[in-house]
Amino acid sequence: MSLRVPLHGRTYSYDVFLSYHDKNFRKSFASDLYSALTQVGLVVYINHHNLTTGDRTNFSAIESSRISIIIFSSNFDASSWFLEEIEKILECRRSTGQVVVPVFYGVDESDVRRQEGCFGKVTQRYESMRYTAALFEATNIPRGNLKGDYR
Fold this sequence. Notes:
single chain; globular; TIR domain-containing protein; NAD; Rossmann fold; alpha/beta; TIR_dom; Toll_tir_struct_dom_sf
C-alpha cells in the first residue's frame, strides 16, 4: 500500500510526515492517526521525542515525505521548533509540490488564522511575522475539520 514510488523523478523515504505538538502523544488524536495510517501499510515519520529547535532530523524527514499532515489541536502549545517545522513543510509544498493536509482537531481554523485562543501565544511569545505568516498560510490550504469525538 505504500506510496513511496518515484514522482517527478524523486523517490521518498516516507509516505507521510506527521506533524503535531501534544504533550501526551499516547492519548492523542495524533497517536490514533499514526496507528491508522501504519495499519494500512503507509510508512509514517513521527517525532515521538519532540526534538528541539535546530535539530534538522525532522527537516530531512519532511523533505523525504510525499505528504505532510499538520495537526492543530486544542493541546497546542506554541514552540519554535513546531513552528519551524510548519515553515519547512510549507517550503516543500511550494518548491516540490508536496501534498500538505492541515487537520484542525477540536479547534476552529479561524482561531489559528487570527492567532486567537491558544494560538494567540504565538505572536505574544515569539513576536515573529514569519510564524504568523506560516500559520496563516497553513489555514488557507484545503483541509478537513474534525468536530466531536473521532473514535
